[in-house]
Write a structure and sequence with these properties.
Elements (H helix, E strand, L loop, with lengths): L6 E6 L4 H11 L4 E7 L10 E4 L5 H8 L7 E4 L12 H18 L5 E5 L28 H13 L5 E6 L3 E2 L9 H14 L4 E2 L4 H5 L1 E2 L2 E2 H13 L6 E4 L6 E2 H11 L4 E2 L6 H4 L4 H10 L7 H4 L2 H7 L11 H5 L8 H14 L5
Parallel strand pairs: 1-2, 1-4, 2-3, 4-5, 5-6, 6-11, 7-10, 8-13
Antiparallel strand pairs: 9-12
The protein binds NADP nicotinamide-adenine-dinucleotide phosphate.
NADP nicotinamide-adenine-dinucleotide phosphate binds next to helix 1.
Amino acid sequence: MSTAAKKTALVVGATGVVGRNLLQHLLALEDWHVIAVSRRAPDLEGDYRHIPVDLMDAADCADKFGRDLGVTHVFYAAYVEMPSWAETVAPNLAMLTNLMDAVEVAAPGLQHVNLMHGTKWYGNHLGSFKTPAQENDPRHMPPNFYYDQQDFIAERQKGKSWTWSTARPHGVCGFAVGNPMNLVMVLSVYATLSKALGLPLRHPGSRANAHALYQVSDTALLSRAAVWMSTNTGCANEPFNVTNGDIFRWEDMWPAFADYFDMNLAPPQKIDLSHMMADKAGLWREIAQQHALQDIAYERLVSWAYGDFVFTPEFDIVSSMTKARQLGFHDVVDSREMFLRLFDELRANRVIP
Ligand SMILES: NC(=O)c1ccc[n+]([C@@H]2O[C@H](COP(=O)([O-])OP(=O)(O)OC[C@H]3O[C@@H](n4cnc5c(N)ncnc54)[C@H](OP(=O)(O)O)[C@@H]3O)[C@@H](O)[C@H]2O)c1
């Protein structure tokens, strides 16, 4: 393919769970040039350029993006976690604004800006919500930084030739080291520690949580969806739910996990992971030494608070995939196979024994 026909992706947040896997996906496509943006350098080999930038620093953004880099597509997957959801609004809106202020003026060929959002759009962090959630469901009582970011990009796009889209995944699962907000890390480290303590494998939520319907998003599928909605004119200026498309109950998933980790299965027992796993850093160090695992600090390995977020709700969490399917995105992933594949990848990379 000629260089002229290539699109140029700016993958923002390229060291994140979402961004790293999107970067990897784009690198395998022949019609894309890729520029990665994050403070740390991504741990991926490949034909791309990394621009280290602090998105909170408007001057740094202007300095790094204030000239034409040929960007045609922005994939925005940067995110900063704060002690409370309400506090996420200011920094996450500032980072997107700083980026767009710099990139937009210097990228005359800009065609599309895709934002990575999630099911919290529907308020699953507040309590039960209408399921399956649809993209045009009414908003919940703000604050919610996804609303601020979407409103910002929709307003900024008015009268421009470029378009925007947003993806709303849930429970993103993918290979990434040192990104603790990753369900695959929660599951595999929890199982490994339970086994080391001679315990059977127990769902760490209530029976009602184990029985509720749940959904996850494989980063490989999410990457394909992001590229699809960014390059398909029918998706212009629209949000899309993006999940594996096969809802499941955790109670049906644990037998496969017990088999994988060669453990006995026991009934669910709700524990507060944040508190009860806090003292297991020493044990993890011993396991890591014994099995020659990668040296990853316990607090960067896994977020137990994120585990509590997943294993506490006693209501269904289901998003409708109808809108994406009707517009032509028919990808589906078997979530059980996905978990086992990702555990394999963690083992192969010596992240878990
Ligand atoms: N993880 C999930 O399960 C999940 C589920 C649903 C929705 N989402 C949404 O998906 C989006 C991406 O989440 P994620 O889980 O991939 O996040 P993540 O793993 O925490 O990654 C965040 C990315 O943002 C970059 N970043 C943060 N602050 C920065 C700064 N000041 N300057 C430059 N880069 C900065 C980080 O890079 P450096 O630290 O290297 O700078 C990293 O690449 C978020 O909107 C999140 O709400 C995630």
